[in-house]
Amino acid sequence: MYAGQPEGKPTGFGQKMRRVVWAGGELVWGVFKTDEFTPYELFRDQHESFFMLSGEAITRCRSIDGKPAPRADRNAGSVDFFHSGISLRGEVWGEYEQIRMSIDPFWSAEHAPILDLHSPWMMGSIQTSVWSLIHEVAAHLKRSETIDPLLTDGVASLLAFKLSELGPVAKSTINALSAGRLKAATSYIDANLEKRILLSDLSSCAGLSTSQFAVAFRKSTGMPPHRFVVFRRIERAKAMLRDKSKTIIEIAFLLGFSSQSHFTQTFKSVTGLTPMQFRMQN
Fold first, then answer.
1. Domain assignment of residue 205, given as a range
2. How confident is the model at residue 120 (pLDDT cuts 50, 70, 90)?
3. Are residues 100 and 218 in the same domain?
4. Is residue 2 part of a domain?
């Protein structure tokens, strides 16, 4: 897996950035410098956490979802976590190095559901021992070196778990989805199985935030949204395999799988059979 090439410079910033994908999102190393307070405005459809490696970032005029937010100056060792679906606005000044980790809400709902019980924004610190791993990933990215996926997946998964140390877990008062909201979400899934379905799309159908929806959906169905989508795709695939009018590779792409091998692996993990074995038996 390779780090990306340096990206373009946003207005007011001098920067270098390189990224690498991991199983639940991506890790982006960057160096930023601005000589004056510079506006920023962000909206993300994924959870994001920022790990400050060095330097200092001074902020002012901050708002979260349009509401005034306290200053959150950041220096080496600080960590921020933001839920998906929130908007950030403010001004920043400073020179600093950081790693930004994005976390797909589907991944967190299945592997780190505790993140859905935290506040929309948290800031704090994590264990000192974990920082050596963060710096190791940063060193690889700085040099644009090939990174073993075992390293990126392992470090990022550990960091996702460690984010629970940033603040107390709120007591969940989220109920299961009403019949109408559940129907809206599952109907959207069934109508869009060939597309990439985002957690923000499903939460919009139900009129909830992504974090509320992930918890409520699990309570309603007994499984996280991502797994439910996979099961729905496999059920649709079974019907198409029985029909025998389309090839297996056609079915794979019609249902949004990246390749026939990806489809075969997922189908077998759910049914215990390869698509060809299932077709032969039906």
1. 179-281
2. low
3. no
4. no
CA dist 229 and 227 (Å) reads: 5
What is the pLDDT of the chain when averaged over all its residues? Answer: 82
Structure tokens given for 18: 């390189």
β-strand partners of 47: 103
Report yes or no: 29 and 14 within 8 Å, Cβ to Cβ. Answer: no
190 and 242: one domain?
yes
Is there a single domain that holds both residue 22 and residue 162? yes
d(CA 195, CA 229): 11
What average pLDDT does range 129-136 have in this prediction?
A: 85
- CA distances (Å), origin 81, targets 124, 125, 158, 272: 9, 11, 15, 38
Distances (CA, A) of 191 to 107, 116, 194, 210, 243: 22, 26, 8, 20, 19
Is 7 inside a domain boundary?
no
pLDDT band of 46, cuts 50, 70, 90: confident
Provide the whole-model pTM: 0.64
- Tell me, yes or no, whether 6 lies in a domain: no
Name the 3-class secondary structure at 277: helix
The distance of Cα 188 from the centroid of its chain, to the nearest Å, equals 20
Got the DSSP string for 68-105? E-----EETT-EEEE-TT-EEEEEEEEEEEEEEEEE-H
